[in-house]
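Translate sequence into structure tokens.
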Amino acid sequence: MTDKNEGLNRVLRLTFSGETALVTGAASGIGRAVAKTLLAAGLRTICVDLRQPERDSEVNPALQICRAGDVTDIEALRAIVAEETASGGLSYVVNCAGVIDNTGFSGVSRESWLKCLEVNLMGAYNVIDAASDALRKAAHGAVVNITSIEASRVIALSNPDPNPQYAASKAGLEMLTRSAARAMAADGVRVNSVAPGFVATPMAVAAAHGQTDTLPAVLVPRVPLGRFARPSEIADVVAFLLSDQSSYITGSELLVDGGFTLT
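Result follows.
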């Protein structure tokens, strides 16, 4: 017997009461995927990266604002927020900007420590701080920070020597998420984080995983879903946490790891 509903697509659409989002790290990887997803939802999106992100030719150019900006430069961030939100406000912030140094544990230099902490942790704080006044004025403000499964678990598989400065910066970002959620809740601003596992991005290649079309042999038994995540899959979760449908979620971290933490 054939199911009468076979072949039908059931759609539960996300809704967004806000109109403008700011996404850092928007030139590539997860940040680019997040910006693309929010633009597709019709949100005016301020795309920021150290190098100016390229415009998406498939999206209404009126919705795209592409700016070069350094998340370690708080004054530059304040200028971008002030200039680009003067007329339309700001409802959403997504902190995707991040760096990794594949150093191993021993002999990590002060420069490498500072680089990871200043971009991955302090940079996210700078963005939230620069945007906080605008977010507090928004009717439905929300922030999502991109952390990592390394925020709470040592990952030393494809490379058995962990990078402490990266893991520490992401663990700090997880706690910053909670601190910001508590600090901004009274003004109706929600702050959550997404902790991706192994994602097919240029950073995954830099982290010594090699090509991302298939999992390295050492990871196959550790990722139950058996593959790298697509950046768009992380972006979909970010979109949910920004949407009206997650209006009672704040201070939470959502794992998107293909089941890695089950093993």
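Note: The first strand starts at residue 20 and ends at 24.
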